Amino acid sequence: MTIALEMYDRLAEFLQAEIALQLGESRGYLVEHRLSPLLNRFGFDSLEDLIDVVIRERESTLVQAVIDAMVTCETSFFREPGTFDLLRTRVIPPLFEERQGRALRVWSGAAASGQEAYSVAMLLIDRFPSLARTANILATDVSSRMVQRTRLGWYSQLEIERGLPHPLARRFLTPEHNGYKVRPEVAALVSARQMNLARPWQMLGILDLVLLRNILIYFSPVVKASIAEQLIRHLAPGSVLVMATAESLPGVDGRFEKVVPSEPHVLRFRG
Ligand SMILES: C[S@@+](CC[C@H](N)C(=O)[O-])C[C@H]1O[C@@H](n2cnc3c(N)ncnc32)[C@H](O)[C@@H]1O
Predict the structure, then answer these.
(1) Rg for the chain (alpha carbons), in Å?
(2) Superfamily covering domain 81-269
(3) In the chain, what is the straight-line distance between the N-terminal and C-terminal CA atoms, in Å?
(4) Which residue spans within 28-127 are E strands per DSSP?
(5) Is 146 in the pocket of ligand 1 (CB under 6 A)?
(6) Would you call 32 exposed, middle or buried from its count of C-beta atoms within 10 A (0-12, 13-18, 19+)?
(7) What is the residue-wise DSSP string for 236-262?
(8) Kind plus residue range of the DSSP H or E element containing 139
């Protein structure tokens, strides 16, 4: 099956407007691969029909299914372990000093299936137990399927083997249905809800630690600028923003400083 160029362009425009996803050119194979499974489920004969209806009618279940199918949800526990070492040694200790007596608020802003949020929860319980007692980690994603997965907190053997150290797996997971479920003490720190970073942000409050990792690379400079503007409203001086190693947030010069000079993706908010 090949998708007509005109429909490809309409879908790309739709996804850009809805979730700021930049599909780029010549990725028809990707669209076909990801949307084909929806044909049977929603009773369409062709991808063109599906795309046409989703754009014209904007029926929420179908729109969400298309978004869920089109986003890239690659993630793992303790992804980029060097960043988690920095969290442990240079980021969380000062937050701990400053915020004693007040709950630590963490946000994983494109959380995929939740491994990032649960990694932070495990790190806190393991290394900063008194901070963990009141910490609150919010995991959000535009994909409803990913939010459900985070809430479930169940992972396959393969997902566990990708990054979760054995001692933490033994301590924080319980075998369940041919995989593993995070234990209640870890799950208790994490809540999950749907949120589109490309729309006005709501109900985030003031945050101490923000993880926006492996998401900014998908956005245009204009969208990144709007994210920077919104983010700053949710930070107090001393709060920390963590991106993926290859990512940056333009337009925030002077507002942040590097936590470690050699690591420009981990930034402390100056205020
Ligand atoms: C590559 S994953 C990154 C997961 C995790 N942060 C990590 O670094 O492992 C990107 C996630 O961003 C989500 N996403 C894409 N566009 C989004 C948007 N506009 N708002 C919120 N989440 C979005 C996708 O659904 C996907 O789960």
Answers:
(1) 20
(2) Vaccinia Virus protein VP39 (3.40.50.150)
(3) 53
(4) 105-108
(5) yes
(6) middle
(7) EEEEEEEE-TT---TT-TTTEEESSTT
(8) strand 136-141
pTM over 0.90: yes
The residues, ordered by sequence, that sit 6+ positions from 259 with a Cβ below 8 Å of its Cβ are 86, 90, 91, 240, 266, 267, 268
Task: Domain ranges for the chain, please list them.
Answer: 5-70, 81-269
* Contact 83 CB / ligand 1 (< 6 Å): no
Tokens 């949710």: give the residue.
234
CA separation (Å) from 22 to 14, 181, 242? 10, 34, 22
Strand, coil or helix: 1: coil
Q: Does the Cβ of 210 fall within 6 Å of ligand 1?
A: no
Query: Which residue carries 């205020």 as its tokens?
Result: 271
Cβ–ligand 1 contact at 265 (below 6 Å): no
Query: Of 141, 211, 226, which is best to mutate to test ligand 1, by the most ligand atoms within 8 angstroms of its C-beta?
Result: 141
**Class at the top of the CATH hierarchy for domain 5-70:** mainly alpha
pLDDT tens for the chain, residues 1 to 271: 578 889 999 999 999 999 999 988 778 889 999 999 999 999 999 999 999 999 999 999 999 999 999 999 999 999 999 999 999 999 999 988 887 678 999 999 999 999 999 999 999 999 999 999 999 999 999 999 999 999 999 999 999 999 999 999 999 999 999 999 999 999 999 999 999 999 999 889 999 999 999 999 999 999 999 999 999 999 999 999 999 999 999 888 789 999 999 999 999 999 8
Dist CA 92 CA 211 (whole Å): 13
